[in-house]
Each structure stands twice: as C-alpha cells, then as structure tokens.
C-alpha cells in the first residue's frame, strides 16, 4: 500500500534529513551555547538515530518518556492501539495505522530536541520552509500583485464578480496545497509560476467542487448577520511557504469583501510534517512580505500585520492538532477547541493530513458520503480544500473513482487531483 511505501522509504528519508540538519548546525550551536550546545546536538542525534533504527526494523512503538504536556495523552493513545490489536502483540511501525505511526515519528523528533536544552527551541524544518518560500517568490509576487489590483475596485464589484473572485482565490489556496515538503521528503516542491494562469485548466481535476455551497453559506450568513454577531471564518492551516501566502490572501479577500468580519487561523504548536505552519512561520512570513522590496508584497505584509493588531485576524495553536487522534475525538479530547470551533460560521480545513483526520484515514468506499465519514465531527459547517496525497477519498459519484483509477493508478497519491468538499454540519 501507499502507507507501506511511506513508512518504509519516506519516513526514514525524513529522519536522515533531520539528523543531517542537526549535524550542519553544530558550529552554530557551539557559537551560541558553547560545549553545552554541541553535547545537546550529539544527544539529539543519538536519540534520532535510535528512532530511525526502531522504525526500519519494525520495533514496537514505545511510550513517550518525556515530561511534555501532551505525553500522557500520547501514552493513553498507545494503550488504545494496544487494545485494538486484540492481543496480537504490541503495535509496531509496520503493523499499526499509518496515520498513528507517522504522527508518532514527528512527536518523537520534537522530543529529541525538547529534551535537549539549550537547543530545545530549534526547528529542524525551518530552513526547508524558508527555502520553499524564497523559491516561490515569483508566484508570491504574482498573487500579491493580482490581489492588490483587485482591492483597488473591490467596492465596485457586483455579487457575480465577487463570487468569481472568491472561487479563484479558493482554487489558488487549494492548489497551493501541492507544495508539501513531507510529501516530497524535503525535495524542492516550490510554486514557480503564477498560480492564477492555469486555474481554468485545473478545474477538471477538482473531483468534488462545492464552491457554490461555500458562496451561499457566506452570503446567507452576511444577510442574517445583525450588528451584534460577526461572521467568523476559521482556516485550519497546512503548509508554510507559498500555500500559507495563498491562505492569507484568501483570508484578506474574505474580510475586504465583507463576506467575513473576522478570520481565525489555526497552526501547529510544534514543528510538524516537515512543512506545516507554526506560529513562528506565520509571523515570519508576514514579516518577510512586509520587508520585501516589492511594492505589492510589502503592502500585503503591512495590511496583514494590521489585521492581526486590530484583532480582525487571530492566530491560535492548540496541542490537539499535533495529537494522533482523528477529529471525531476532538469533542472528548479537546472540548475547549471544539467549543471554540462551534463559534465559527465556516471551517476551512487545508490539506491532506487534515482530510485524513476528518475521515479517520480509513479505506472507505469512494461513494460514502463525506458527512458520514466525518463520524459525528460537526462543530460548524466545514469544507476541506485538499489535493490528494493519500489513498482516502469519500463523497465521489458512483463510478467516478474507478474511472480515474483505470487510466491513472496513482491518482489518489500524486497530488494532481483536488477536492473542495463541504459539509453543512446539520
């Protein structure tokens, strides 16, 4: 299965790159922290080499031994996996759900650093994320320029034109999800060309396209909206780099067009899945745009900093997003987060990992309704913007999946197809 290929080949590659990254920063650790820094680097590398060996030799998954706030929840989840295996031995790397062991690997990478001060705040993926951002410069410039031109006459757009612009920016945000460094095991995956030029040609590759439903939802929320209540949209972020810029442009459009009054972003509280957005990445990206020597890029950065200061945009991170649980457990495991999401008019879930967690990462029949696969996770109306990079897909028309499969066996994992898939949460 694709899961087997990922655990056998891709995950060890990622660990090797992490070890290499720490090696390369040895001098920097020494300059900043002296011998203590070098000792910490050695301990972290030895921890990660041991982890790589456990993975490659299919050892049992072991409880976390660190004192970090989420350790107890992880260890309870391991007990849950043990119970699932009906006494068929311990959960191990090749005999456990892919989603679980992949999340577990990233949590162990985090522990390797967190347990080794003074390098405990070092993000081993930061360089790759920054590189992806810089290599996507042309696409970022094209998008910021397009958007700033659009803002000049946004007040004069009629409803039809607004709808067209929303659909365009939703698609840019959808295809921005192709740039994923955990998918390419850290190989270059930046967005080189303008994302706006190819949108028309990409429409046939959107297998489920519920953009009309999003439009009606936002327009109706606006109409129902009284002075007292704000229309709130939440974006559950995926990758940093170009994808994050496309999400920020979409968020700015929602506010500038008055389709939404506030946008809440949800990122990861620790480095995750190579290119996922942390608070540092979020702030860093806005600062990079602000200080860019391109007029429209810096205008975007300045406006976005302003949105955060005014509280029109709010950034959150919550430990739950980096737990192994799928989202149907959120109400029980993280009731505070679930209650917060219930305040939203629309939740936009970016990317493949969020889709896997929405649907429990099961091998569903393609035609199973999205609503059913969500397994009672309905805090608010929600939509998944996702390019397919794993073999889980629901909500297709009868025969649709089989038809593509016949001509393209890799369609579920090659990042070529996407969905804009909506659930009304009723």
TrEMBL record:
GO cellular component: a single term: nucleus
Superkingdom to which the source organism belongs: Eukaryota
Organism: Oceanodroma tethys
Keywords: Hydrolase, Manganese, Metal-binding, Methyltransferase, Nickel, S-adenosyl-L-methionine, Transferase
Name this polypeptide is given: Sugar phosphate phosphatase
Domain-level remarks: Subfamily III proteins have a conserved RTxK motif about 40-50 residues from the C-terminus; the threonine may be replaced by serine or cysteine.
MF terms (GO), sorted A to Z: metal ion binding; phosphatase activity; protein carboxyl O-methyltransferase activity
SUPFAM superfamilies to which the protein is assigned, alphabetical: AF1104-like
InterPro entries named in the record: ARMT-1-like_metal-bd_sf, ARMT1, ARMT1-like_metal-bd
Name of one Pfam family that matches: ARMT1-like_dom
GO biological process: DNA damage response; methylation
EC numbers: 2.1.1.-, 3.1.3.-
Function (record text): Metal-dependent phosphatase that shows phosphatase activity against several substrates, including fructose-1-phosphate and fructose-6-phosphate. Its preference for fructose-1-phosphate, a strong glycating agent that causes DNA damage rather than a canonical yeast metabolite, suggests a damage-control function in hexose phosphate metabolism. Has also been shown to have O-methyltransferase activity that methylates glutamate residues of target proteins to form gamma-glutamyl methyl ester residues. Possibly methylates PCNA, suggesting it is involved in the DNA damage response.
